[in-house]
Amino acid sequence: MSTTPVGQKTAPVALLLFNRPEVTQKVVERVLAAKPQSVYVIADGPRPDHPEDVRLCQEVRDIVTGAQWDCPVHTEFGNTNMGLKARVSSGLDWVFSHEEFAIVLEDDCLADPSFFPFATELLEKYVDDERVGIVSGNNFLRGKQLNADSYFFAPDVRIWGWATWKRVWQDFSQNGLNRQWSESEGEALLARLTSPARKAQLQRMMAKAHTLNSWALPFVFHAQRRRYLSAVPRENLVTNIGFGADSTHTQFESFTAEVPVGTLSFPLRHPEDVVESSEAGRIESAEEKKLWLTFPLQHPIDFLGRVFRYLRR
């Protein structure tokens, strides 16, 4: 078996960038190596109350424009700061006005090389299957394997390195982005999840939804309402390299989200049915609970450092 398929051209890639040149450089290099069909770069402008943003935003843009791309590159560089929700949503509206599907990477999502052909193959395979909402790069099983399949289906969306279709994004943009959710609707969404870990995560997100300028929370809720499934690789294929003080909404450096990156072999082995894996949910919850109990004891200095940096923000 091979780690890369032969002759496959990577799907279009949308890059969501802002003011972090160091992580952006790493992500751009990985995308360059994947040789996508085209690249769309969406970059927000500097914040008026952060003078250093002018320099940092320009450094990020220089990385993009200075790269040796061998495909068409389209850019939307904001002159002013639109904020996360407006910048990402309008940018992806633009992408999906031109493309039927795309891989989406934020500046802190570093993907294993096998993620790109994995996402591309599944984007093509499930392009007309309305049961599938996204292809994710995130697996939280921490090395545990369910079976010999290359991926499974989960009832939640995982968007640290992901891919989706025009049909999904345009529906969300029109019917989910600015929708207000009632308490009863939120409870109904939570009831759908079989994984206690994913349910607890969604509860935390719902509790702070009104305080965040976020496109991601409405997208998660919309995906639950539509009962979308996510295609999840058997190995974790994307790591978040941007936790810390300069991240926008992930300022606590969550050790439960830091999963070692693996790789996939090709050709892919597809599941027989498009159905949720309840076993995966049980394993994820057990692994997350175990990590919460053991990490502070095994890595006390690291844990206290994370808490200290979070409290100082």
From TrEMBL:
Molecular function GO labels: transferase activity
**InterPro entries xrefs:** Nucleotide-diphossugar_trans (IPR029044)
Instruction: Report the domain of life of the source organism.
Output: Bacteria
Task: Write the record's keywords in alphabetical order, separated by commas.
Answer: Transferase
Record's protein name: Glycosyltransferase
